[in-house]
């Protein structure tokens, strides 16, 4: 476990922050699902998907480039050059976006109120997107974690104030999320003393070209990632309406929670691989982490499956109950999505960003084709199944394309965990009417998680 000490330490720090922040937001969703109609929640969800599409485009994925080059910088001046030029790039692109939306508002194609709300939410998220990459670059993951927690608390507090008390409805959600990200940004700026890393003298066309050359291949990758993960919402809204999208969005909450936790793992994994890629035995290290990650992932997803009925029967509003049947499909898609991030982290460490782009584009195309082809025949199942199939294909392709550098293999514990996960899938679909068995499954899932991961948990909590 000594080889993975930094990875475990970083993952522990990020996981605590993620668990708290996502937990707060998840509890908030339970209440918001009761306060807002499926149409309003579905519309807000679509608005957020447009923002997640624009983030990599406006930033040109500069944050990833700043992180990667800063990690290998030999002096603080060199690091400052990357951070400054990345910040300038993001700011200039946001100004251009503001100009475009102002023109659209001026010619009455968009309402001024909608444009201002959209820009407020987009701007705060865009700088949060970059500032979090900045924190990774300077290895201040403690601030990264705290800022996420503070942001979640502010979003929850403002949501209650604006939606429940002031009755702002969807406007209230927009304001709440915008203020939450803005507070997090200010915390990062002052805690990490951003001004010490921003030096206008270091603005350089050469550095800008270097950043863009690295990050530009990531843009189609990120757009394709958007298609893989959230374009389903667009197709659903167009084909089935905002209410159906609201149901699908709630069905995604449990898988998304799992995805967020392993998304944080991928952040520390990228950092770890970037530092260890020069090791002679990095392939052995990568395989060790791959198997441990998969074991934790499968047993965690088994646990989530076992408690899903509690959320849909007793916590979410009854109007979202029909979304429960999609959870196992989306949860399985999350497993392969985590593999995608894991293999992608190896590619980033090898500085082969175009490899990630190619595989993600293929997956995105497959996702879109299956979804559009089946949405009118099997409804929301089309969105869930298309996501699962696309994630499987993309993960397999990434693993295959890495075979020239490292061969990944599954050990006996990993294979056993697939059998455990299979049991919970079968139990979910065929034994839901046996309420006693459902409660027994929660106990079984907890025992399986502890029994399979006891060594990892011991090492994890010693850090």
UniProtKB/TrEMBL annotation:
TM spans (from-to): 12-34, 40-61, 82-104, 110-131, 143-166, 172-195, 295-314, 326-350, 380-397, 418-436, 442-461
Keyword Cell membrane: yes
Record-level GO cellular component terms: plasma membrane
InterPro entries: Poly_Biosynth_Transport, Polysacc_synth
Protein's membrane topology: Multi-pass membrane protein
Organism superkingdom: Bacteria
Keyword hit for Transmembrane: yes
Main location: membrane
Compartments in which it is found: Cell membrane
UniProtKB keywords: Cell membrane, Membrane, Transmembrane, Transmembrane helix
PANTHER family for the chain: O-ANTIGEN TRANSPORTER-RELATED, PST FAMILY PREDICTED COLANIC ACID TRANSPORTER
Name of this chain's protein: Oligosaccharide flippase family protein
């Amino acid at each position: 476990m000594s080889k993975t000490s930094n990875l475990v330490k970083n993952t522990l720090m990020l996981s605590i922050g993620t668990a708290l922040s996502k937990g707060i937001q998840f509890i908030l969703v339970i209440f918001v699902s009761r306060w807002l109609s499926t149409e309003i929640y579905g519309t807000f969800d679509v608005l957020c998907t447009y923002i997640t599409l624009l983030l990599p485009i406006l930033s040109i994925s500069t944050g990833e480039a700043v992180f990667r080059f800063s990690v290998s910088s030999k002096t603080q001046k060199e690091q400052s050059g990357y951070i400054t030029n990345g910040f300038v790039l993001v700011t200039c692109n946001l100004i251009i976006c503001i100009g475009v939306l102002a023109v659209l508002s001026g010619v009455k194609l968009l309402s001024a109120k909608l444009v201002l709300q959209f820009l407020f939410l987009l701007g705060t998220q865009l700088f949060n997107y970059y500032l979090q990459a900045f924190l990774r670059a300077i290895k201040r993951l403690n601030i990264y974690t705290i800022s996420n927690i503070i942001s979640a608390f502010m979003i929850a507090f403002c949501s209650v104030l604006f939606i429940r008390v002031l009755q702002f409805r969807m406007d209230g959600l927009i304001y709440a999320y915008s203020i939450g990200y803005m507070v997090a940004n200010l915390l990062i700026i002052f805690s990490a003393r951003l001004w010490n890393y921003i030096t206008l003298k270091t603005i350089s066309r050469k550095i800008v070209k270097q950043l863009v050359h690295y990050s530009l291949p990531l843009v189609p990758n990120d757009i394709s990632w958007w298609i893989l993960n959230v374009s389903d919402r667009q197709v659903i809204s167009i084909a089935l309406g905002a209410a159906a999208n609201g149901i699908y969005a709630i069905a995604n909450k449990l898988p998304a929670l799992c995805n967020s936790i392993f998304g944080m793992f991928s952040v520390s994994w990228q950092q770890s691989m970037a530092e260890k890629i020069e090791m002679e035995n990095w392939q052995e290290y990568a395989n060790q982490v791959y198997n441990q990650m998969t074991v934790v992932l499968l047993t965690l997803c088994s646990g989530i499956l076992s408690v899903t009925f509690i959320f849909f029967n007793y916590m979410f509003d009854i109007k979202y109950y029909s979304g429960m049947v999609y959870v196992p499909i989306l949860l399985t898609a999350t497993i392969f999505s985590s593999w995608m991030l894991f293999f992608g982290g190896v590619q980033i460490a090898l500085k082969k960003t175009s490899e990630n782009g190619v595989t993600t584009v293929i997956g995105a195309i497959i996702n879109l084709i299956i979804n559009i082809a089946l949405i009118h025949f099997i409804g929301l199942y089309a969105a869930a199944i298309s996501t699962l199939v696309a994630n499987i294909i993309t993960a397999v392709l990434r693993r295959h394309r890495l075979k020239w550098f490292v061969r990944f293999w599954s050990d006996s514990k990993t294979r056993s965990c697939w059998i455990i996960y299979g049991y919970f899938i079968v139990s979910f679909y065929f034994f839901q009417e046996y309420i006693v068995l459902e409660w027994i499954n929660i106990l079984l899932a907890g025992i399986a998680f502890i029994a399979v991961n006891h060594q990892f948990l011991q090492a994890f909590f010693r850090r």
